[in-house]
Design goal:
With about 200 residues, the chain is of the alpha+beta class. It is about 40% helix and about 20% strand. The chain has five helices and seven strands, in the order ααβαββαββαββ. Strands 2-4-5-7-6 form a five-stranded mixed beta sheet, with helices on one face. A two-stranded antiparallel ribbon has the order 1-3. The protein starts with about 25 loop residues before the first helix and ends in a 6-residue tail after the last strand.
């Protein structure tokens, strides 16, 4: 899939990303794969969630994913997006803590996009990197740069691979660049929140 890159870990994601989904709707084959994964998610939700509230929340999340990944863009709401705020919200949805370095969440720094979709892309990324055991950490070491670290993961595992592709696509459509790499005993993701500034 080409989601593993080998550049150094700094928050300058200026190198070409090896995997960049096209800015268009999914092809027939990819669409079939997506729908198949979506059906599997629905079945898993139905089998594992007994609480109607939890089930409704999960179904709503899956519908958001379907619209963002394969919708025509008509529901996008363009507004100034504050990266640190959206990253905190996505982390909270997974009951994670986002470690923000002082000064990395300046109120004045925003970028144009759909805040809901950026948040969704980060939620998908966090879910894709969630390990079976061990912890997932997220930090914002510099303005506009999110780093997520998990124990070493199998990036070719079908469900994880599908989730990563979905995260790439949703974030890419909002001008956010994502890179995922395996480094020894850990898997590391870096997201540039917003388009690169000249």
């Amino acid at each position: 899939m080409g989601i593993v890159a080998s550049s150094s870990l700094g928050c300058e994601l200026d190198e070409a990303v090896l995997y960049a989904p096209p800015r268009r709707r999914l092809t027939t084959g990819s669409h079939a794969e997506f729908v198949g994964a979506l059906v599997h998610e629905f079945r898993s939700a139905l089998a594992s969630l007994k609480d109607p509230g939890q089930l409704a929340t999960r179904v709503a999340w899956l519908v958001r994913l379907l619209e963002a990944v394969d919708g025509d863009g008509s529901s996008r709401r363009m507004e100034p997006v504050h990266g640190a705020t959206v990253a905190r919200q996505a982390a909270a949805a997974h009951e994670m803590t986002l470690d923000v370095t002082a000064g990395a969440d300046r109120d004045s720094k925003t970028f144009p996009g759909d805040a809901e979709r950026v948040r969704l892309g980060l939620e998908i990324l966090f879910e894709a990197l969630k390990p079976a055991s061990g912890s997932l950490t997220a930090r914002l070491p510099a303005e506009g740069c999110l780093t997520v670290v998990a124990p070493a993961l199998d990036l070719d595992e079908p469900q994880r691979r599908f989730a990563l592709r979905s995260a790439f696509r949703v974030l890419d459509m909002e001008g956010c660049q994502l890179r995922v790499r395996s480094l020894g005993d850990e898997t590391r993701a870096e997201v540039r929140l917003g388009p690169r500034t000249k």
